[in-house]
Amino acid sequence: MSVYDASLIQFPQILDIRGNLTFIEQERHIPFKIARVYWIYDVPGGEQRGEHAFRDQEEVIIALSGSFDVFLDDGNAQKIVHLNRAYHGLYVPRMIWRRMQNFSTNAVAYVLANYPFTTGDYIRDYREYKALMQEGK
Fold first, then answer.
1. Which of 29, 52, 82, 88 is catalytic?
2. What is the CATH number of the domain that holds 31?
3. How far apart are CA 76 and CA 73, in angstroms?
4. Which domain holds residue 93?
5. What is the C-alpha end-to-end distance of the chain, expressed in Å?
6. Contact, 35 vs 26, CB < 8 A?
7. Catalytic residue check, 52
8. Closest alpha carbon to 36 in 21, 56, 22, 50
9. pLDDT at 136 over 80
10. What is the pTM of this model?
């Protein structure tokens, strides 16, 4: 996998003077079936989240409120994606190191995942991650 396999997805919008609506349908707007949903909020100023990769999990990360940056690293190349629209999601394939940073006040990161929570799916040591990527895992 490469950071270049990560991509921004634009979800459908229904614009209305009373307020806008965006929706997501699994396997239509995102490339997988949803097995887990979680969100990150109340992140203190200057703090970061993530700092790991997943062996099998794919994700779509959405800034439901506020903004933040997602730093992606595949062991060779890096990329930063700024998320600040509720109708955009960042697709992150498996085996991509990620870190979420620069959270604005009241930011909410909403994450759709194709894999249920399993501690063993996490790679939390960057040296281990780099070694796995060099082996072509």
1. 52
2. 2.60.120.10
3. 7
4. 3-134
5. 9
6. no
7. yes
8. 56
9. no
10. 0.94
Number of domains in the chain: 1
**Tokens found for residue 24:** 């997501």
Cα gap 6→79, rounded to integer Å: 9
Q: What is the DSSP letter of 26?
A: B
Q: Alpha-carbon torsion 109, 115, 119, 121, what sign? A: negative
Pairing mode, strands 36-41 and 49-54 = unpaired
Confidence band (pLDDT; 50, 70, 90) for 135? confident
Structure tokens at 68: 């933040």
Strand, coil or helix: 129:
helix
Map tokens 């281990």 to a residue.
128
Query: CB burial class (10 A; 0-12, 13-18, 19+) of residue 5?
Result: middle
Helix (H/G/I), strand (E/B), else coil: 105:
coil
Sign of the alpha-carbon dihedral angle for 4, 7, 136, 97:
positive
Rounded to 5 degrees, φ, ψ at 47 are -80, 160
Q: For residue 15, give the amino acid letter.
A: L
Q: Which two tokens stand for residue 137?
A: 């895992």
